[in-house]
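chain below, 475 aa
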Amino acid sequence: MGDLHVKTLAGGDRNITTEAIDKLMEGIRGKVLTPESPQYDEARTIWNAMIDKRPALIVRCAGAVDVMRSVRFAGEHGLLLAVRGGGHNIAGNAVCDGGLMIDLSQMKSVRVDAKGMSARVEPGVTLAELDRETQAFGLATPVGINSTTGIAGLTLGGGFGWLSRKLGLSIDNLLSADVVTAAGELVTASETDNPDLFWGIRGGGGNFGIVTSFKFRLHKVGPEVFAGLVVHPLDAARDVLRFYRDFMKTTPPEFTCWFVLRKAPPLPFLPSEWHGKEILALALFHGGAAKDGERIAKALRAFGKPIGEHVGPMPYTAWQTVLDPLLAPGMRNYWKSHDFKEVSDGLIDALIAHARRVPDPQTEIAMAFLGEGVTKVSKEATAYTHRDAAFVMNVHTRWDNPANDATCIAWARELFQAAAPFATGGAYVNFMTQEEQERVRSAYGSNYDRLVSLKKKYDPDNLFRLNQNIQPGKA
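prediction:
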């Protein structure tokens, strides 16, 4: 292998000598991949098929020391740096063109302390892998809804799922983290150790360092929960959603319900004549006793004339994977997102109007209900500031033919604009695409200036810039 042509942090080009690369390889316990390596294409391929970038080097880290050495190498050579956890981020920041990609996906350890109700988790772990380990002890922590998602990116941006109404965000259950800083140093971040950094990584994304280990608080959950889907025709959506928003106010925090508008997939419990037609699906979940969930959900299930349902007791781990077939990797994806305090009549009408003309059968409009587990926390408590948002919308545009890019993206943007009058103006960083850098300030709201100061302290040269970037000294 000769000298390697790379992209620098400043946007220019340079060569790195063979000797420098050999020295890096000698110090890495994992693997260093170049474009000629057999595993190169696998390592650079991520969930969103719209992202097709080619790093000059990929370091598949085996532990924290590999991460430290890779960060130092990137800093010494001024390399453009990307960090991959699960590779699920919609913006594609896990991979870069011409620079160095730090791949954490091989760091898979989960160590559960059942007595202490906590788990130590490495950054390459997926949600399915975490759930499998914690559920062996009847424990869980709030994470997302697609089991192939990586724990690292999900947590650093906030992290929410079926347990969040009761137990808050993933970051609200983070007890500590080991972080490699831009200087290549390994530090602990917690309420007592580097508390400013601990505040910043709870919602500030990958702006301040690379987390090599998370420690989460665990809670008694499962192994059986009450959950499922209730499906209505889209024509009934206005009445159902107006009932839904009032009904949810009467329910306890153990119960949550999200909704999705899309074309019906070929679910076995739906009549075949409804496959491919526009529907409203209610996804309900109760994390307590199944008999309590059944009692609470009774009125919601009985309202209107559903075309089908699949609801009942099931393993928590099964429910955590129920949406995976609709979110498999390899498709083209483009998202737009808003936060809302409530589901108003005007918002309902905007959602239904756009659901009548979804551009692809794989596309959906999803609305997550966060509730009091999230909103009760002070907006200054963590970098994640939009605690007033009870609902988060993900305009999840998904298709497979590149020829449909313009049509699908235009539809998502039109819905985003139509819903804007009813939104809070905030944004969830994990749902923001690569083109939305102008929304970063609004994503952090009143916490933004504090984050800028923190960035200046921990990453003054903006080494960690491939993210929803907070620039140092730009307050």
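The first strand starts at residue 4 and ends at 7. DSSP finds 15 helices and 20 strands in the chain.
thats it, cya
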